[in-house]
Amino acid sequence: MPILEVPSRYRVPTRGEARFEVSGSTLRDCIAEAEKRFPGFQELIINSEGHPKRFVRFFLNGDALERDALDSALEAEDTITIMASAAGG
User: Fold this and answer.
1) What is the pTM of this model?
2) Which residue in 31, 39, 44 sits closest to 81, CA to CA?
3) By the 8 A CB rule, do 23 and 33 touch?
4) Low-confidence spans in the chain with pLDDT less than 70
5) Residue 89, in any domain of the structure
6) Predicted pLDDT at 2
7) Are 81 and 33 spatial neighbours (Cβ–Cβ below 8 Å)?
8) Which of 15, 17, 44, 88 has the fewest CB atoms within 10 Å around its CB?
9) Virtual torsion, Cα 48, 51, 87, 89, nearest 10 deg
10) Residues facing residue 52 across a β-bridge
11) Number of compact structural domains in the chain
12) Angstrom distance (rounded) from CA 21 to CA 6
């Protein structure tokens, strides 16, 4: 199963878990599975229109994904990393 890596900023719903297996054949499926296990997780990273929130980036095996890649196919050995961009002024 793919592995989802979560930055500390989004670990409240995961009860501190930083890395866990998720079932799913796409990134969107894996996020939905994480939401089932950890209610409140999805709303931190996905907006109401089903797109990544502004400061959220996804990486697949270390490579940055395009913002519209939520339906990209995954392999069982893939690692998905969520990154939270910092903004300020």
Assistant:
1) 0.89
2) 31
3) yes
4) 87-89
5) no
6) 96
7) no
8) 88
9) -70
10) 46
11) 1
12) 11
Q: Is residue 53 part of a domain?
A: yes
3-state secondary structure the chain: CCEEECCHHHCCCCCCCCEEECCCCEHHHHHHHHHHHCCCCHHHHECCCCCECCCEEEEECCEECCCCCCCCECCCCCEEEEEECCCCC
pLDDT value for 67? 86
- Domain of 48 in residue numbering reads as 3-84
Give the pairing type, strands 79-84 and 3-5: parallel
Q: Name the residue with tokens 């961009």.
A: 85
d(CA 18, CA 22): 13
